[in-house]
Queue: 3 jobs
Job 1
Amino acid sequence: MGSSSALLSSLTAATNRLSLASASSSSFNGSARLLVSRGAPPSLVVASPPLPPLQIRAMKKIQGKVVCASNDKTIAVEVTRIAPHKKYKKRIKTSKKYHVHDPDNTCKVGDIVTVVKCAPVSKSKSFVVAEVKTGRTPSTQLPAPALPSFEPAASA
């Protein structure tokens, strides 16, 4: 009996040394997982393939009106949304301004533009102009109303 229990204990010890255990590294999102064998030297640590990165696909394209085009290669686009009030359910108009990269300085104030989210160009710009629908040009503006001429009546 003594030899069989010694054989059993040596088999369990050998099994424990050879079994693989999953240990995760101390990375932020846990994307790097390591397979570590118990009792093996640290040089034999095998890394598993990393997980694919998380992708956010919200709000890729937005459409708005150019309200400022005085900066070089930057325009300010105002986007207006209509959403119901949380409590009263009345539709409320909200607007937000975005700084948008305009590499060719083609946009003018009043243009309707479609902008697309991209990698950040600067601290405040993470959108780029995709399509420009021109607004009212100076030639199509309404003319100023003509005032009637005032001539004093001639006294006889």
Job 2
Amino acid sequence: MPTHNPQVPALNDESCSPPRSSYPKVSEAMSIKPVELDRAGSIAALLELLCGRHSFLVTSHERPDGDAIGSALGLMHLLEAMGKQVTVAFADPIPAPFHCLAGVERIVSALPPSSPDAVILLECDRLERSGFKCPDFKVMNAAMTINIDHHLSGRDFADFNWIDPEACAVGLMVYDLAVASAVTISPQMAGCLYAAVLTDTGSFTFASTNAATFGCAEHLLECGADANAIAQSIYFSNPPGKVRLLGIALSNMQIEGAVCWSWITLEEMARAGATVEDCEGVVNYLIGIAGVKAAVLLRQTPAQQEFRLSLRSKGEIDVAAIAHHFGGGGHRNASGCTLEGSQAEVTERVLAQLQAACCEPLAARPVLPPTLLA
């Protein structure tokens, strides 16, 4: 449930910018038991908080995807339309397909030295999920933190928490905030939020897609979002290395019963001339196979004995629970986590969970070539 700290001062039109000294400090606010709010109450309370503050830092999770980038930039456009000062920061580089979004050139890679009135974290279950270190947040000394998330694994770690697992994307939550604010949605804001919703619904194919999703998309197009240009940039501008890497992953593919898996090693990424961001979307080819109910892609990290897992499923199979079991999180049908160990060890562990989720017995694993066990 969304939560709001009752010590945050109520704001009104006559007093839209209280002195900064009146803002509760994070340490003070977190000691107060939060009050549960419904969706409409969360939006109203958050708008009051935004109205009463002037400067904001907006960030999201490391290895940003379309929803993280699009919703952060969409929120930046919204806050600036409200007359606010906004900095958007990401710890990791922005993937090339999203360079088409308005304002992407303003994204910085380090936290600002000045103290904003509020830090807004999107799609994060803790500060560290942003990729920035906690001491850096403490040095910045923000007056309060705001958490906006739509993951089942979302946590109430901030002063104000709006978590809505029913939302198909954080971009949709920012859109609802924009509509409630009565601010005119510019073509720039619309394009960013459309990209967020488009990508986090798997091009409107995931189970989270509903009538409200299409209503949002329709309105954003009416406001000036260029659906064709966004799709061309995100889906039809792949670098050669990404396509070569996809070929490698598909050649590595294994299927056992209703479970499909594949892997990408550091050596294979180098051979393909690919980057980490080129792994994005590969797992969707695995879950797209007829008869497959759950799929996982294992990507070796620079730590060598560590793999990043991208999990996908169909129907009622809950890969979010599996990701959470391994310290990760996400959605019922799309989640991720990181596991330490050799490729053989990590594969065995995750397949055991996936087979159990599909209610199928775990068969003996095929012997992998020695080069893949290194």
Job 3
Amino acid sequence: MSTRIVGCGNPHRMDDAAGVLVAERLRELGFRAEIQSGGAFELVGSWHEDDDIILIDAVVTGSSVGKVHVWDGNPPQVPSKAQLSSHGFGIAEAINLGRTLRLLPRTLRVYGIEGKNFGIGETVSPEVLHAVEEVAQQIAHPPREDSVHNLQINSSRS
């Protein structure tokens, strides 16, 4: 059984590049990883035939920049009021749409990297860059199954 890894975002919108950068780093480590914009319809269309999906995207929840959130389950219990995607109609909506259409994968893990700056440009916050490497390593070397449930990893350096 294989796991599809999807990094979401826009490399030309600063911290929104987080998911794309994780996917690129995983490719460097020898993993297959896709890059998508992160739109809900694109996500549901790409994952509906897969059993296991890992999604990575920039999020805005009000936490400190660079904080990594992990939502795991079927479907994952993501916060309903936080903006979980910088794309507006993104991951949280894709999960709801997938549930409604009965197109959710068997397992779905979402890594959200807290971003702050989403303007036009390619400068990514140092905290987000640190979190990118941390998430890539965590995906490359996952913890035991029973130790992951709504993890929150603080990637911010004080």
